[in-house]
Design brief:
By secondary structure, the chain is of the alpha/beta class. It is built from 35 helices and 17 strands. A 6-stranded mixed sheet has the order 9-8-10-14-16-17, sandwiched between helices. Strand 4 and strand 5 form a beta hairpin. The longest helix is centred in the middle third of the chain and has 23 residues. The chain is globular, with a radius of gyration of 30 Å.
Length: 878
């Protein structure tokens, strides 16, 4: 995507375009076209025009002498303003030839002429646009903060002279720098301001998109929308990204500039591809998104008039084919691209394109073990490295060296792999480039493991995990200069470290503690990735601080085994493992979940429930009994989150018949405070009528009546259950319990996790505003938030992550939800008994749920686990 300014021309001159790439979907900054000369000199004007023509035809070397002569003529005439303008254009041409040092000297000379001379609006415009070139040179060479500060200065000038179009472009340039720094939320806000869509967050309101449709069409506004679409995608707001790009596309068609359409199609392809990577999709849905991405990439390549945009579209098409494992088409695509490799420009756009290509080819070579392809990748990376050295951009060099290290790692040439990886780390140390450093340390860890140096590998992995923990809020905003995926580039670091720590039969307590800490950190990282921000305020806590009668069980799914760590207050950590592949484990877990359907029989359920019981509970039964444990707290991993632990069976009893059960993403997120210390009252929000396409919930009315009969309750029913009214009630009075009896869904995608009120769907990210409002008045947080009619998204393996996310985002100490759609009648009975139990003065939330579940279990009508097991407690169980 290129982003350029289109300014009114007083005299037809130009400022030469200068491109850079920030991401796989290249976000390019382009200096605006013409800068006006203050006084027109005919011969110099003709030289500038000739240089303009040559430049547009890519004949940069031939344009240089004309610009040099024009600058010299202006100097003789004492025309400092137009001399400065000519030097600015010369600097841009030198940059296109990668003569960075000369370009820097020339633009500095231009600024020294212009500063202090610029009095009129036109002179101020020339100064600001020259600063823009300076900023782009800084960005290209990796001096991002300097570029940002320069563009902030330009913005102030454009505001002062009321140059509206230039102001938009300057804000777009600022957003590019912010993206390069990984500050995507700030980049988003800057772009919203440029489009007059001021917002405290990057969540576009319902009225924002119609406003954009009526926005005056210009090149800069279209490019601003395109850039915003890119940023929204990185922030995980795929629906909004697609919508804003769908507005930008017809606007670009209206302009009649094919290159702008090509840039938007490239972005649309990337957004469709991001949709395809969501876990909660059927195969058909994933295929549909991938086809949409492929079509968009082809459209982009056909329409592009700039070679860099066409090249990027083709490379993304190749990468998509690799991910789809469409090897025959991949081979054809690569052969069509092969002749272009030597023509990649030696700027950041070209360098990152070569890295992108190398990564795709490495995946092809890894599958086919083609030595000649490995050699071609080596040549591509060597060429890119030489070009990066000329740029003096150490960050770019580090990425290339890292990829070279990966190349040798794939070929099992570990010494070479270690050499290049260490070289990269010297250019991108943790204090300077943590987002690169953690990946390099991870790579070093893998290399040392392959060399048999387990302790060395653990050291490198531990450093990588520590960096990830320190990044937290920045992790999801890492500059996506190369392909980045949480499940590919973050999650494995944690899991592989745990695998190393626990590979001995009897690991030390130090290693067990580090493994436990690593798993808790992964849980936090998953939540951060779910929300695309650091949503949880983590504080280290020991189980003794929380509950001396509870045991914490950490099941950890690794590629070749299931590891379990047990934490009992006052005792050493224990560990045991089951040697089963991840595929075998997940097959069993899916069968267990499927066996809880309403039509299943005990002969189907019990063997499966006993199998998982044997893996998770059987080895620790004696220790639990000896320690008088009353509550089991699970920090569940992967697909295990979709299974209610209550249904595990020892051959005689369900687990819920022996223990109270709770879930938590980690002890560091638990705020210990027993509910028994609080005077109970409930605020309920409920829908009984069909609404917004969702069916009626007739059993909810009885549910609310049962609650009101037990504990003092204020009810917002149907038309009263508005999001604004719920927020107002919560802000006015402290309710320890908020009970929402309405439709809702938990999903691994935050945008698909919501509850239904009478007037709208309240997204999980909005819980922060809706339910935390009273924290501004320093009122007590919600002790227990209940979702009684919500469910996990069908077909989403990680949907239960949405329940944990809702628990964290709401600010409630504890959250109770259901793992599937529940029966109206059994739920009313469950809730009646649950609140009756809560009303007792000496019972915990976990125990109240257990007793209510046992009540259903003992009822012949509802003894099937389908009715009583979906209710799970997340967070503080006391």
């Amino acid at each position: 995507m290129k982003i350029a300014r289109s300014l009114p021309q007083v005299t037809v001159l130009f400022l030469l375009s200068f491109l850079l790439t920030i991401a796989i979907n290249p976000v390019k900054a382009q200096v605006n076209p013409p800068i006006a000369i203050v006084q027109s000199q005919t011969s110099s004007f003709q030289q500038i025009q000739q240089a303009h023509t040559l430049y547009n035809n890519g004949r940069f070397q031939e344009a240089l002498p004309l610009l040099q002569q024009a600058a010299a003529t202006f100097e003789k005439q004492g025309d400092r303003i137009n001399q400065g303008m000519a030097l600015s254009n010369l600097a841009a041409a030198l940059a296109q030839l990668q003569q960075w040092e000369q370009a820097e000297q020339t633009v500095n000379a231009s600024l020294s002429l212009l500063q202090g001379q610029s009095k009129t609006a036109e002179q101020q415009r020339i100064l600001a646009q020259t600063q823009d070139i300076k900023g782009q040179l800084q960005l290209e060479q990796g001096n991002v903060q300097d570029a940002l500060e320069i563009w902030i200065q330009s913005t102030k000038i454009y505001q002062a002279i009321d140059a509206k179009e230039a102001l938009i472009q300057s804000q777009v340039n600022q957003s590019l720098a912010l993206q390069s720094l990984g500050l995507y939320p700030r980049a988003c806000k800057t772009l919203l301001e440029s489009l007059k869509l001021e917002s405290q967050t990057c969540e576009l309101s319902a009225t924002a998109l119609p406003t954009l449709k009526n926005y005056p069409v210009s090149v800069v506004t279209v490019r601003a929308m395109n850039s915003l679409g890119h940023v929204l995608r990185v922030l995980g707001q795929l629906d909004q990204s697609q919508k804003i790009l769908s507005i930008a596309l017809p606007a670009s068609e209206q302009l009649g500039i094919p290159q702008e359409q090509a840039a938007i199609y490239l972005n649309l392809g990337n957004t469709a591809r991001a949709f395809a990577n969501q876990p909660a999709l059927t195969t058909a849905q994933r295929t549909e998104f991938e086809q949409s991405a492929s079509i968009a990439y082809k459209q982009s390549a056909q329409l592009a008039t700039r070679s860099d945009t066409r090249m990027q579209a083709q490379l993304n098409q190749l990468s998509l084919l690799v991910d789809e494992k469409n090897w025959s088409e991949t081979e054809k695509m690569w052969r069509s691209l092969q002749p272009q490799v030597s023509q990649f420009p030696p700027n950041q756009a070209g360098i990152y394109a070569q890295v992108n290509l190398a990564q795709s080819l490495m995946k092809i070579a890894e599958r086919s073990s083609q030595d000649n392809l490995f050699r071609e990748v080596e040549q591509i990376l060597n060429r890119a490295n030489q070009q990066a050295k000329l740029l003096s951009n150490t960050r770019t060099q580090a990425y290339i060296l890292s990829t070279q290290g990966k190349l040798y790692e794939l070929q099992k040439q570990q010494s070479q792999a270690e050499f290049f990886t260490n070289q990269a780390l010297s250019l991108a140390p943790a204090f300077k480039s943590p987002d690169i450093a953690y990946q390099l340390l991870w790579q070093l860890g893998r290399i040392k493991k392959a060399k048999g140096d387990t302790e060395g590998a653990i050291s490198q992995y531990t450093q990588a995990v520590n960096i990830l923990a320190s990044l937290r809020s920045d992790l999801v905003n890492i500059n996506p200069e190369v392909q980045f995926s949480f499940r590919e580039s973050v999650e494995p670091v944690y899991r592989e470290l745990v695998g190393l720590l626990l590979q001995e039969k009897s690991p030390s307590q130090a290693k067990l503690k580090l493994a436990r800490q690593t798993i808790e950190s992964l849980q936090l990282a998953e939540l951060d990735n779910f929300f695309r921000d650091a949503c949880a305020d983590a504080k280290q806590k020991s189980i003794e601080e929380v509950d001396p009668t509870a045991a914490i069980i950490y099941p950890i799914i690794l590629s070749d085994r299931l590891e379990v760590i047990l934490s009992i207050p006052g005792k050493p950590l224990q560990h045991y493992s089951t040697q089963k592949s991840q595929a075998e484990l997940e097959k069993t877990f899916r069968q267990v979940r499927n066996s809880i359907r309403q039509t299943s029989s005990t002969t189907e359920r019990f063997p499966l429930a006993q199998q998982v019981y044997d893996w998770l509970i059987r080895p620790l039964e004696k220790d639990l009994t000896a320690s008088n444990i009353k509550t089991l707290v699970f920090i569940l991993d992967g697909y295990l989150r979709n299974i209610p632990m209550a249904i595990l069976h020892d051959g005689q009893q369900y687990l819920i018949e022996k223990y109270s059960i709770a879930l938590t993403p980690g002890l560091q997120l638990v705020e210990p405070r027993p509910l028994t210390q609080i005077k109970l009252k409930v605020l309920t929000g409920a829908l009984t009528e069909a609404r917004q396409g969702f069916v009626a919930l007739p059993g909810v009315e009885r549910e609310i009546e049962e609650i009101s009969a037990t504990i003092p309750t204020i009810t917002l029913l149907n038309q009263q259950f508005l999001s604004t009214e719920l927020q107002a009630r919560i802000k006015a009075v402290s309710y320890p319990i908020v009970h929402l009896a309405t439709h809702g869904q938990f999903s691994s995608n935050a945008t698909e996790t919501f509850i239904l009120t009478w007037d709208e769907r309240v997204n999980v990210k909005e819980f922060n505003h809706l339910l935390r409002s009273r924290s501004e008045d320093k009122k007590s947080p919600i002790e227990l938030l209940i979702f009684s009619a919500c469910q996990t998204a069908a077909g989403d393996d990680r949907a239960a992550l949405g329940l944990a996310g809702a628990a964290i985002r709401s600010g409630a100490r504890s959250t109770m939800g259901t793992l599937w759609s529940v029966n109206d009648e059994s739920t009313a009975l469950f809730m009646s008994e649950f609140y009756r139990q809560l009303a007792k003065s000496n019972i915990s939330k976990a125990e109240a749920i257990r007793n209510a579940q046992i009540t259903l279990l003992q009822n012949k009508q509802f003894q099937h686990p389908f009715f009583w097991s979906p209710f799970v407690l997340v967070g503080n169980w006391q």
